[in-house]
């Protein structure tokens, strides 16, 4: 038996098939959330979290440590849910993730010129036909919009009449070896992989509203080792990126600046860090453990902020550069939504609004039922989103034509081939 089983629960097969699990394997923590997905909003059954010691900047670098963390997080979720987790939707991130926009053009096949699902698939396949290096593979192909003859901005051309169809798509690729190591760790934890999903897409599914994505919004998922970005406009993905910087950089700065162990620096960051100096009282003192077992010291909280604010400004400015590659900020009236563990640093939205000049907020998982309070924290956004992303037809928005199409099946088949190669 791979781990301690939860209390025995009798589940009919029809019910069992509706249990969906999201597994977020991050740099600082592994998060597991399981839910019953009967349609509509997911009903949260359980959640688990474990320290992650085998991942660096979003990429697995120690299989054994990652397997142990996955097992611990899944076991905790199983215990709370009272069911055994057998498969999961798994998130992927890391600096190896790259994205690009592409366009495919095909002639409409039918003699009556009615556009069919097959025409859409052909146009997307044409857009996807890029010369990629042998060490990279396509993870997602996300339609942005279609053009039927000279009619631009078509969201779903099925049933329309035309002679030519163009598909504008956003393509996300990842390093083959990074994906293989991720799959290997999950498989060694005796879990099947249903889907591999880019983490900012999952987080967006959990924390953004339809109105925000229609107007224009940027999702920024600030984790320990990476900061993931997804830009939406007119309900579609316009840009994605993964920056190899995150909350761990703030912890490192505090450890050096305060001359304190990293564990204490992490505690200080979580409890006392503020991203904007003007929000801190001058006489606010914090006790900080000294390095080498020496006596603790009282430090003005403003000094902590003076260390944290420059690093947070740097990260926000890197985010700004990435977003500007997609759209100007005036085209994002819904602003920026931050989520992830590092988004909990007090004053982040205030600092972001000063730097970016657009509205900012911290995003929590939306529209979940069951044990909703168990995931009412930005650290669970990706795991909850992974569950929502695996609910075709039941999410709050769609990336385009149904992703259970021929194209998506081909991507999933490639993932399965990777698993076969590493077993």
Q: Describe it for me?
A:
The structure is a single chain. The strands form five sheets. This protein has a six-stranded mixed beta sheet, with helices on both faces. It has a five-stranded mixed beta sheet with strand order 14-13-12-17-18, sandwiched between helices. Strands 7-10-8-9 form a four-stranded antiparallel beta sheet. Helix 2 (63-81) packs across helix 4 (176-188), helix 7 (247-258) packs antiparallel against helix 9 (301-326) and helix 9 (301-326) packs across helix 10. It is of the alpha/beta class. It has twelve helices and 19 strands. Residues 1-14 and 393-408 have low confidence and may be disordered. The protein folds into three domains: 13-95 and 176-207 and 365-422, ATPase, nucleotide binding domain (Nucleotidyltransferase, domain 5), CATH 3.30.420.40; 98-173, Dna Ligase, domain 1 (2-Layer Sandwich), CATH 3.30.1490.110; 209-363, 2-Layer Sandwich (Nucleotidyltransferase, domain 5). It is globular, with a radius of gyration of 22 Å.
What's a concise summary of this model?
This protein is α/β, with parallel strands linked by helices. Helix content is 35%, strand content 28%.
User: What kind of assembly state do the chains in view correspond to?
Assistant: single chain
So, CATH architecture of the largest domain?
Answer: 2-Layer Sandwich
Share of residues in strands: 25-35%
CATH superfamily of the largest domain: ATPase, nucleotide binding domain
If strands are numbered along the chain, what order do they take across the biggest sheet?
A: 11-6-1-2-3-19
Average pLDDT confidence is: 87
Cα gyration radius (Å): 22 Å
How many individual helices?
12
| Main β-sheet description | 6 strands, mixed
Q: At the third CATH level, what is the topology name of the largest domain?
A: Nucleotidyltransferase, domain 5
Query: Helical percent range?
Result: 25-40%
How far apart are the termini? 19 Å
Outline, from the CA principal axes? globular
Given the helix and strand composition, which structural class is it? alpha/beta
Poorly predicted parts: 1-14, 393-408
